């Protein structure tokens, strides 16, 4: 399991393919898994690896909050596709003649047997990649939900918001943010499938809890 060497073009290609149908390395919200992989990359992926570049720019926006993201960092080799060998801990001082580099350079000499095995593994990897489901357009949305006053039960307000369930909607992390005069607003993140859930629907459902909610605003909206 792993991405290989994420400082190499081959490793970035594996990462790009891995993210073709995923928003994050693990789960539906940014986590320490994303930070671990992000920190292993030397810089922004090239433009043609648009899945990896989209993910890189998104995770970079969390740089100041990275310590507060959920999860626990694991060894880099614990992340990524199961059919790619983890080479992050390998030494580079010497190379066994029997080693086979799945994405090896065309300039390296290799035996016919090693070449055949590498081609078979590449064919298997391409076959698995071609069977992946079509990419579903998703967005990460940060909502500001404002109460009526400082006496509003914010725990109950959040409970009401999270009670909204819909196909293509996943609630994420939340926090209370002071807005003045002792009033706090609920700031909550969600991930939606664009063709199933829209901001108009969210606003209609959330503001329906009129005993607690005064208004709802979209604080941030990012395609993922």
UniProtKB/TrEMBL annotation:
The keyword Protein biosynthesis applies. Residues 138-224 form the Translation elongation factor EF1B beta/delta subunit guanine nucleotide exchange domain. Keywords: Elongation factor, Protein biosynthesis. Pfam families: EF-1_beta_acid (PF10587), EF1_GNE (PF00736). Residues 102-129 form the Elongation factor 1 beta central acidic region eukaryote domain. Gene3D superfamilies: 1.20.1050.130, 3.30.70.60. Residues 95-112 have a biased composition (Acidic residues). InterPro entries: eEF-1beta-like_sf, EF-1_beta_acid_region_euk, EF1B_bsu/dsu, EF1B_bsu/dsu_GNE, Glutathione-S-Trfase_C_sf, Transl_elong_EF1B/ribsomal_bS6, Transl_elong_EF1B_B/D_CS. GO terms for cellular component: cytosol; eukaryotic translation elongation factor 1 complex. PROSITE patterns: EF1BD_1, EF1BD_2. GO terms for molecular function: guanyl-nucleotide exchange factor activity; translation elongation factor activity. It comes from the Eukaryota. Residues 80-113 are annotated as: Disordered. The keyword Lyase does not apply. Belongs to the EF-1-beta/EF-1-delta family. Catalytic subunit of the guanine nucleotide exchange factor (GEF) (eEF1B subcomplex) of the eukaryotic elongation factor 1 complex (eEF1). Stimulates the exchange of GDP for GTP on elongation factor 1A (eEF1A), probably by displacing GDP from the nucleotide binding pocket in eEF1A. EF-1 is composed of 4 subunits: alpha, beta (alpha subunit of the eEF1B subcomplex), delta (beta subunit of the eEF1B subcomplex), and gamma (gamma subunit of the eEF1B subcomplex). Interacts with elongation factor EEF1A1. PANTHER family: EF-HAND AND COILED-COIL DOMAIN-CONTAINING FAMILY MEMBER, ELONGATION FACTOR 1-BETA. This is Elongation factor 1-beta. It comes from Rhodinocichla rosea. The lineage of its organism: Eukaryota, Metazoa, Chordata, Craniata, Vertebrata.
